[in-house]
Each structure stands twice: as C-alpha cells, then as structure tokens.
Amino acid sequence: MATAHGFDRGDRLTRMAPSNGAYTMRLADRSDAPAIARIHNEGIEDRTATFETVPRTADQVESGIAERGDRHPTVVVERNGTVVAWASVGAYRSRACYDGVGEFSVYVARDARGFGVGTMALHGLIGACETRGFWKLVSRLFPENIASRALCRRLGFREVGIYRRHARLDGQWRDCVVVELLIGDAALPG
C-alpha cells in the first residue's frame, strides 16, 4: 500500500513528489556513493548546511549506506541518470525507546538547486521512513539556511526552537534551528 509520501512497502516509487517532470526518485544503493559524496562535499564547502569540514569519500558513503541498511534509507533524485540530490535518515539515539525517531539530512547539487529536487528527495525519504515504522523525523538547520528552512516548512515540519552556540564552524559559534515532523500513527489526531 502506498503512503501519502510516495513509497510502498516494496520501496517502489508509487507517486511522485512535486517536480518539473525531468527528475526521478528512488532508493539509493551503494553504487550511488560517488555522487552522494560529491554532493555532500559541495555542502561542506558551502559552509551553509553542516558543521562538517572534512570532505567525504565515496568509500565512506558506501560504508555508511551498508551500515545503515534497510532500516535507515537514503533516497536519491536523478536527472537524466545523474544523482542531483539525496536525503537520508540515521538513528536519532541508540536507546530502544527512540527507534522510531530518525535524524535526517538532505543535500542538493549546486547546479540543481531551485528546481524542487530537495523537496522531492525529502518527500520520498518521509515516505520510506513511514513504511519502516518511524513516527518522527528531526534535524538541525543553520538559522540563515533559508532554503532548507523553507523546504521543511513546505513539507509540514515545525520549528521547535533554537540551540544557541551548538558548535563551532571555522572557529565561530553557530546556532541551530531544531525541526521535527510527526509521521505514521504519531501524525494522526487523537
């Protein structure tokens, strides 16, 4: 059965998120690691989306996909067979009581920004997480990352608050906006 966010239990794309029609969305596999690393490294270089400063290698990304396994999916968006965006989820905490809470990331290649592919990737990730029994997705965004904040608002995330001076990036303290989205049974009224 398809979820409201696009994937059925077989992880087949069953409904496209809003797009311009030239893009497709699917679950990532290990062969996507070089493209995912390239896009992630653009985000690291831009200094607008992560505290990370060391570029990722394709081997690191491939290992991460394998370690997270089916429980914690990565979704990619392609344009003409080339990965231009991705979204992934990892464990929020190691305690069993938080098994249904996932911490997500979404990255878009510089030349694909502004075309709705980040929305597609995150939309697909929400659906993939919902079919796996997640009840909440969370993340932290830099306050000045207006595009990511707008993306999250469009998909129903709420801004919970701000972590002040959460960590340093290039020697400067940075704040983070905390976002969350209830999915699955947790999103139902009552």
CATH superfamily assignment of one domain? Gcn5-related N-acetyltransferase (GNAT)
Molecular shape: globular
Task: Supply the helix-strand structural class.
Answer: alpha+beta
Question: Which stretches are poorly predicted, pLDDT < 50 over at least 5 residues?
Answer: 8-19
Our measurement of the CA-to-CA distance between the termini, rounded to an integer number of angstroms, reads 23 Å
SSE string, helix = H, strand = E?
A: EHHEEEHEHEE
What's the helical proportion of residues? 25-40%
Biggest β-sheet strands, sense, barrel: 7 strands, mixed
Question: What is the CATH architecture term of one domain?
Answer: 3-Layer(aba) Sandwich
Please tell me how large the radius of gyration is. 16 Å
β-strand percent reads: 25-35%
Total E-strand runs: 7
Report mean pLDDT, rounded to a whole number: 90
- Looking at CATH, which topology of one domain would you report? Aminopeptidase
Multimer state: single chain
Number of helices: 4
Instruction: Going across the biggest sheet, name each strand in turn.
Output: 1-2-3-4-5-7-6
CATH class of one domain: Alpha Beta
Task: Outline the structure in words.
α3 links the parallel β4 and β5 (136-141). The chain is globular. It has a domain at 23-136: Gcn5-related N-acetyltransferase (GNAT) (Aminopeptidase, 3-Layer(aba) Sandwich), CATH 3.40.630.30. With 190 residues, the protein is an alpha+beta fold. It contains four helices and seven strands, in the order βααβββαβαββ. The protein has helices spanning 33-46, 58-68, 117-131, 146-154; strands spanning 23-27, 74-79, 82-91, 101-108, 136-141, 158-169, 172-182. The longest helix is centred in the middle third of the chain and has 15 residues, at 117-131. The two termini are 23 Å apart. Mean pLDDT is 90; it is low at 8-19. 26% of the residues lie in helices and 31% in strands. The chain has a seven-stranded mixed sheet.
